[in-house]
Design brief:
The complex is a heterodimer of chains A (about 375) and B (about 70). With about 375 residues, chain A is an all-alpha fold. Chain A has 14 helices and 4 strands. The two termini of chain A are about 35 Å apart. Chain B is mainly alpha-helical. Chain B has one domain. Chain B has 3 helices and no strands. Chain B is elongated and about 50 Å long. The two termini of chain B are about 25 Å apart.
Chain lengths: ~375, ~70
């Protein structure tokens, strides 16, 4: 159970897998589309360039994690910033994570309604989705991570399979020419991958539940390398198949590229596999945020258990999801115009400020 | 919506009763606070179907064109 009396721990690698599965869908939905929209044929370079910010963030988090082993993000913030500022920042993060949780529940529902269950009331999907998340999270982080490891393997396997088929239609003309004129658009677009990559900071919310091995640098490097390769290949596949002019007009370019795959002149039905695994990844994403919120509330109010808060939060999330947006375009605008700056501030800005303050106060 | 609200009420009743029985008053208080927010929101949504979405509300505040 989610009860903290046992407080079972997970490994850093499991936490990393959780993060990678969680952001997989937002990368497909959000990063690929916006990168293509703003960086055009040079969109495949965006993820690589975003590492200029993400690698320093990983370094900062690595340093903080090693110094404050076994302490939660809340404890670390209170120690570095002091109680008042620590509490304030943490409560702002709880509110923001709740908005993100609702955003992803809404995305999950809208995607299922628009792709598979056309005509179904989206509220029913929200309800069923949140009930499953609620039941799952009652068994705790360890069980979630074990399930996630399987989902991660499925995700990587289907991604490689899909990529293999997509690259058969690849046209190199669609990703060229690249010139110095692309430097500006590429660097102004790196904020979009960073928006989702920055969720890595959120795994430190349950830092006290992560068991650190001796060699962690490699695992942090793995995150950077994995994200760069996967996102670059995703952008290359979509651009190579459609070209940027067509891809930027699509709602989900990667999904449409998968639907476009043909084997022996017939539909490959790979889109069914893709959508079902997409559902699993959305489930992990929602579980991840719901768990983070419950854990944060537990820390702030010094609760003994986070199980009851979970039911209350998910119930509130359902009603909030119902009134969150009117259509999918509003969601996309919200992600682009609101989520991006706030995420950069709270998930990248806060760790950097924490690191600098800890250095100044000689805590690091 | 009404069915979900009823299910939520029933589940919450048992949750809160269990919490107070096991002397977890703080958890119970937080549960009731979040529950009150959720039920209020749910009631508003049921009573006024022509509500403005949260995203629209944020766009209006920040002056973003949707």
């Amino acid at each position: 159970m989610l009860n903290e009396t046992k407080n079972k721990k997970i490994t850093l690698l499991q936490a990393i897998f959780l993060f990678l599965t969680a952001i997989y869908t937002s990368n497909i939905r959000f990063v690929t589309k916006l990168s293509i929209m703003y960086a055009h044929q040079a969109a495949w370079l965006v993820s690589l360039c975003s590492m200029l910010v993400f690698v320093p963030l990983l370094y900062v988090l690595y340093k903080i994690m090693n110094k404050f082993k076994g302490q939660s993000f809340f404890d670390i913030m209170c120690r570095v910033f002091g109680k008042t500022i620590g509490h304030t920042v943490f409560i702002i993060q709880i509110i923001w994570l709740f908005i993100l949780l609702t955003l992803y529940v809404t995305y999950a529902g809208e995607k299922l309604v628009s792709s598979t269950y056309v005509g179904t009331d989206v509220k029913l999907i929200f309800f069923l989705f949140l009930v499953i998340v609620g039941v799952m999270l009652r068994y705790g982080l360890q069980v979630l991570c074990r399930i996630n490891t399987m989902i991660f393997i499925i995700t990587v396997s289907q991604f490689m399979l899909i990529l293999g088929f997509l690259f058969t239609d690849f046209s190199a003309q669609n990703i060229t020419p690249i010139s110095t004129l692309d430097i500006g658009p590429v660097f102004s677009t790196i904020v979009f991958p960073l928006t989702t990559f920055s969720y890595f900071s959120f795994i430190f919310i349950f830092n006290d539940q992560i068991e650190l091995g001796k060699k962690n640098k490699g695992k942090f490097a793995f995150v950077a390398i994995f994200l760069t390769i996967v996102n670059t290949l995703k952008a290359l596949a979509v651009l190579g198949v459609f070209g940027y002019e067509l891809a930027k007009k699509m709602t989900y370019p990667f999904l449409q590229a998968v639907e476009n795959i043909t084997v022996f002149s017939g539909s490959s039905v790979l889109d069914s596999l893709f959508i079902s695994s997409w559902g699993l990844q959305e489930f992990i994403l929602v579980c991840f945020f719901a768990y983070c919120i419950c854990r944060m509330i537990k820390h702030v109010f010094k609760l003994t258990s986070q199980t009851p808060v979970l039911t209350a939060i998910l119930g509130f999330c359902f009603f909030f999801a119902v009134c969150f947006c009117d259509n999918i375009f509003e969601l996309a605008t919200f992600s682009e115009k609101v989520v991006t700056p706030v995420n950069l501030m709270l998930a990248i800005g806060v760790p950097f400020v924490l690191f600098i303050t800890a250095k100044i106060r000689k805590l690091l | 919506m009404l069915i979900v609200l009823c299910i939520y009420l029933i589940v919450s009743f048992f949750e809160v009763r269990h919490l107070f029985k096991t002397a977890k008053k703080k958890e119970g208080a937080i549960y009731i606070a979040v529950f009150t927010l959720a039920v209020s929101l749910g009631t508003i949504l049921i009573l006024s179907p022509n509500y403005n979405s949260f995203a629209n509300f944020v766009f209006n505040i920040l002056g973003i064109k949707s």
